Amino acid sequence: MDSPLRLIAQNPVDRLAHTVEALLVVASAPLSVSELADATVDDPERVETALRLLGERYREGRSGIVLEQVAGGYAFRASRDAADACARLFERPVERGVSQAALETLAIVAYLGPCSRPEIARIRGVAADSAVASLVERGLIAEAGRESGPGGAIRYRTTPLFERVFGLESLAALPRLDDLGATEDELRSRLIEVAEARAS
Amino acid sequence: MPALHPRPAVRDLELDLDAFEGPFDLLLTLLLKEEIEPREIDVAGIVLAFLEHLADRDEVDLEACGEFLVLISALLELKARALFPEEAAELDELEPEEAAEELARRLAEYRRMKEAAAWLVERLAAESERFFRLGPAPLAPRIERRLADQSASALADALRGLAVPPPNVSLSHMALRFPPVTQFLERFRALLARRRRFDFDTEVAGLSRVEQAVAFLALLELRKSGEIALSQAAPFTPIRVSRADEERIPAWTARSA
After folding, report:
1. For residue A165, what is the domain's CATH number?
2. pLDDT in tens, B61-89
3. Are A30 and A74 a contacting pair, CB within 8 Å?
């Protein structure tokens, strides 16, 4: 008697899904649809169908492994249910003890990058050398060419690891700076109210 | 991760100055909105308040100190420009209003980036349960380049094409065009065979400057070999050439002896 699983396995898309699954297990970084299509020597659209199939199979609550779309590709990660157990065995060294200065520098590079240390220093008002060095060491930012002209300063951009650590599909998933300004506007209006109350 | 959370020490710093009473944050906002004149603000009072605030705490908060320094120096610059508008304009070629505007813009930009950093902190906390495999990417296999079919004769043809000696490059445009000295030697000897003497200047008149120079070299050559005698009445006067045995000029022989 054939089991239902065996019947599914005979479907060509499902066979492709098996191969994609294997590639994602081997990979240490997210794989894009085109990379998966190249490796499987298959059509990108069929690869996307296979990924949807895998996404259904590997989702939160159903499996200990979760397929996610992150940093411009697809990758497996541990399910959130298993996070506590994972934390007992492994730590997340990338973000351990990131200073406020480094986070501000990271925000500047993520939003305005590629940008150089002098540009970062101009915005923050203090030198950014140690913050930049710490972010490079953690692999959250990387060199991305130099400013034009002779002796141009090195420019930095965020890495795919940054997107992965912060769970971003791409840099476009960062909130707009205008949206972030909402708290500032709110603060301002509150402060103006206080000032007016004091004047009256 | 306590290090990730911003400590609002500077923003909440309570101030009690002559011109202003309230949190430091409010003061900055009012300054940016130009509701308070920078010159009315006692910066030293703010520094004192911050130092007292620091003294109340057990540990030194370096992040807060850094933020305070940035803000207080921006405030000082703002105030200095307002107090010395002429000098400020000279220093940076900016009007005080422009300078204040620029500083306000920078403060706003920095503030937006602080908000972005705060968002990153929140995001990191929300994503703290993300565990995934991390490591260097494995080496990719070397991809073999596929070449089109090749034949030995095609290679031979290509080499033959390269083996053809290049055409000689013409240097004719570079050559100096003047006759050889021997031509003038023969010409002067022939001349002296017919005539006993001749005038060099008349003989070379009409020739080019280079040809005249070559003719003169021939003249010197003949003189050196003793075939001719030369005479000149004065510098820049015509040179007279005669057979060596026919005419001897005492002055010349005396000089050349």
Report:
1. 1.10.10.10
2. 787 788 788 888 878 877 776 666 544 44
3. yes
